[in-house]
Design a protein that fits this description.
single chain, 2 domains, globular, about 15% strand, Rossmann fold, alpha/beta
Length: about 575
C-alpha cells in the first residue's frame, strides 16, 4: 500500500499588538501571544487543563469586533488583529481584579502563598494597592480537619482549577461548585470535610490553586523546634523527586539535579543526619519483589499491585475495598526507612529511640496522612514524626537566608544514605516497576540482567504495558499514573479478567515528580524534564539494582535475616482496611 502522507498543517497569519504572528490553525490567542513574547494575564487558565473561560481576565480587543474576546478560548483566524493593551482592555482587567479583591481575604502577609500567589502578582502588575469596592468576603475558619490539606474558602476566587484537577486528572470529583451567581462557592459534595468524601489527599488541587485557598498543612515550625532542641537527634530522609524539583524555586532550569546543594542546605538547617529515601526504596524492592515472586510460585493473589503511593492506597480502600488483597503488603519506602530509623539505626548510632526525631521530605501531601495511619504505628508511636513537602523545604531554606545556588555540594550521610539507581527511579511513573523487574528477573532466573533499562514502562503515557520473560513464565505488567487511569485497570481486576500479573500505580501525573507537594508551577512539561533527570541520576550511579546495595545486604544479614522473613514482615509490612463509602448517611 502507498505510504499515507501527512496532511500539511494550515497556518494562520495575524497580528498581536501590531506584531506579525504565524501559528497553526486552532491555536488560541493566549498561546499565539506567548509566541510574540506577550503575557496576557489569566487566572482560570491552566496549560494542563481544559479551557474554562471563567475569569475573563484574559480579555482582549479584536479590531472590527464590538465585544472583547477571552484569549484563552478564542481561536485565531486569518488576518485577525488583536490588541492586549488598549484602554478598554486594561480597564476591564483592572475591574475584574478589583471585584475579586472585594470578595477575597486580603491578609496576604499571613497567607501561606504570600509572594507565590497568582492573584497577588497580577495586582502588583496592575499596581492595584487596594480595591475601591467594599469588601463582601465571608471570613470564616480555615478548614483543617485532616492531616494533609487545609482549605480557606475566603481565599477562593472560584476559578475552578482545583475542580478540574480533581475530576479530570484523578477522576474523583471531591470538589465541586455549589449555589449560583454571587453565592457560588467551591466546596466538597454535601459540604463534608475532604477526608469524608472520595478525596485521597493527593494534593493536586493545592498544586493547581492560584491562591491560598487550598494548601498543605504546614509542619515547618514543629520541625524547627525539634532541630533547635538539644535533647533531640533529628534526622531527615529525602525522596528522589525532591532533588529534581527543588531548584525550580531558586531559578534553576526545570529538572535541574540539585542533590548536593540540597544535602548541604539540610545540614546547614541543623539536621543531625541527612539520609536518602532511596535507601528505603531499595529495601522496598527487596520485600515487594520477593513478595511478587512468592505469589507467582505459591498461587498468591494476582495481579499484585504496588503500595508505595499513599493516595493510591487510600483510593483502593475507599473505592475497591473488596480487592485489597491485590495490594502488596510492603510498606512504602518512606515508612520502611522510618521503621529502620527507629529500630536499627539507634543501635548503630548509639542514640535512644526516644530521642530520635525522623523527618521525611516528600513531594506529596498524602504522606502527611500516611505517617499517622494506625496500621503504621508501633507501640502507639510514629516511625516518621513529620513530613515536609518540597514547598515547605523551600520555605525553610529561604527563611534562613541560604543562597541555594551558591552552596557547595555534600553527600548523604552513612549508613542510610547508600542507595542504587533503582531507588532513584521511584520518583518517576514506571520507576517502581522497573526497579522491581531488575531484581525480580535476577532472583527468578539466576542470571545477570544485561539490559536493565525497561523502556516500555517509561514515559507519560497514561497506561503502559510490557512483558518480561522470567524463564519458567512470561510475566505481564502494567503501569498507570493518575487515578483516572488506575480506575480503568481496576475495572478488569474487579471482574477477575485482568490480563496482568503485576501493576504499578502512582496517583500523580508523571509519578512523584508531579506530586501534589511539589513547587507551585509544576506542569506536565516541567514533569517531563524531572523524569529525564531521574533517569540521569540512575545512570550516573555505580550500582543500579536494589539487591546489590551493600548496606541493604548487611541490614538483612545483621538484623532481618532475609526478605519476607518473620523479622522483616513484622517491621516492613502492613495491612489495609476498607473504608465505608463516602456520602453514607
Amino acid at each position: 500500500m502507498p505510504e499515507t502522507q501527512e496532511k500539511p498543517v494550515e497556518m494562520i497569519h495575524l497580528t498581536i499588538n501590531n506584531i506579525p504572528v504565524t501559528v497553526p490553525k486552532g491555536t488560541k490567542i493566549l498561546q499565539a501571544a506567548q509566541q510574540a513574547h506577550i503575557d496576557i494575564p489569566h487566572l482560570c487558565f491552566h496549560e494542563d487543563q481544559r479551557i474554562k473561560a471563567h475569569c475573563r481576565l484574559c480579555s482582549v480587543e479584536v479590531i472590527g469586533r464590538r465585544r472583547l474576546y477571552a484569549a484563552c478560548s478564542t481561536e485565531c483566524w486569518e488576518g485577525m488583529e488583536v490588541h492586549t493593551d488598549t484602554p478598554i482592555v486594561r480597564s476591564t482587567q483592572v475591574s475584574i481584579l478589583q471585584l475579586m479583591l472585594a470578595n477575597h481575604n486580603r491578609d496576604c502577609l499571613s497567607c501561606p502563598r504570600n509572594q507565590n500567589c497568582d492573584l497577588q502578582k497580577l495586582c502588583s502588575r496592575f499596581n492595584i494597592l487596594r480595591s475601591p469596592l467594599p469588601s463582601i468576603v465571608k471570613i470564616g475558619h480555615r478548614i483543617k480537619t485532616n492531616p494533609s490539606i487545609i482549605r480557606d474558602p475566603s481565599k477562593c476566587i472560584r476559578c475552578g482549577r482545583c475542580i478540574r484537577a480533581c475530576k479530570d486528572v484523578q477522576g474523583i470529583a471531591a470538589l465541586t461548585y455549589a449555589h449560583r451567581s454571587k453565592d457560588i462557592v467551591v466546596t466538597t459534595a454535601y459540604d463534608k470535610p475532604m477526608e469524608a468524601t472520595d478525596c485521597v489527599l493527593c494534593g493536586q488541587c493545592s498544586l493547581a490553586c492560584p491562591t491560598g485557598a487550598i494548601v498543605e498543612r504546614d509542619a515547618t515550625a514543629k520541625v524547627l523546634w525539634a532541630i533547635q532542641s538539644r535533647q533531640k537527634h533529628v534526622i531527615c530522609q529525602v525522596a528522589p523527586a525532591v532533588r529534581v524539583a527543588l531548584g525550580d524555586a531558586f531559578g534553576l532550569k526545570p529538572g535541574a539535579i540539585a542533590t548536593g546543594q540540597m544535602v548541604t542546605a539540610l545540614k546547614l538547617l541543623g539536621f543531625d543526619k541527612v539520609f536518602d529515601t532511596n535507601f528505603g526504596a531499595d529495601l522496598t524492592i527487596m520485600e515487594e519483589g520477593m513478595e511478587f515472586l512468592d505469589r507467582l510460585k505459591n498461587g498468591g493473589t494476582l495481579p499484585m499491585m504496588t503500595s508505595c503511593c499513599p493516595a493510591w492506597v487510600t483510593f483502593m480502600e475507599k473505592e475497591y475495598g473488596e480487592s485489597l488483597e491485590h495490594l502488596s503488603s510492603a510498606k512504602s519506602p518512606m515508612m520502611m526507612f522510618g521503621a529502620v530509623a527507629k529500630t536499627v539505626y539507634p543501635k548503630v548510632a548509639g542514640v535512644s529511640p526516644d530521642d530520635i526525631v525522623t523527618v521525611a521530605i516528600m513531594p506529596c501531601t498524602a504522606k502527611k496522612a500516611e505517617i499517622q495511619r494506625k496500621e503504621m504505628l508501633r507501640d502507639g508511636k510514629q516511625d516518621v514524626d513529620y513530613v515536609l513537602t518540597t514547598r515547605e523545604l523551600i520555605k525553610l531554606i529561604k527563611s534562613v537566608g541560604l543562597t541555594f545556588n551558591d552552596l557547595p555540594e555534600s553527600d548523604f550521610d552513612s549508613p542510610l544514605g547508600e542507595a542504587t539507581g533503582a531507588g532513584a527511579i521511584f520518583g518517576a511513573t514506571g520507576g517502581v516497576m522497573e526497579a522491581a523487574l531488575r531484581t525480580v528477573y535476577e532472583k527468578a532466573t539466576g542470571k545477570t540482567l544485561e539490559k536493565i533499562d525497561f523502556e516500555d514502562v517509561r514515559g507519560m503515557q497514561g497506561i503502559k504495558e510490557a512483558t518480561v520473560d522470567l524463564g519458567s513464565r512470561t510475566v505481564h505488567i502494567a503501569v498507570a499514573h493518575t487515578l483516572k487511569n488506575a480506575a480503568k485497570l481496576m475495572k478488569d481486576v474487579r471482574s477477575g479478567t485482568s490480563p496482568y500479573d503485576f501493576i504499578e500505580v502512582m496517583a500523580c501525573p508523571g509519578g512523584c515528580v508531579g506530586g501534589g507537594g511539589q513547587p507551585i508551577g509544576t506542569t506536565r512539561a516541567v514533569t517531563r524534564e524531572r523524569i529525564k533527570a531521574i533517569y540521569e541520576i540512575d545512570k550516573s550511579l555505580p550500582r543500579r539494582k536494589s539487591h546489590e546495595n551493600p548496606v541493604i545486604q548487611k541490614l538483612y544479614a545483621d538484623h532481618l535475616d532475609a526478605p519476607l522473613s518473620e523479622k522483616a514482615h513484622a517491621l516492613l509490612h502492613t495491612h489495609y482496611t476498607p473504608v465505608p463509602p463516602a456520602y453514607e448517611f
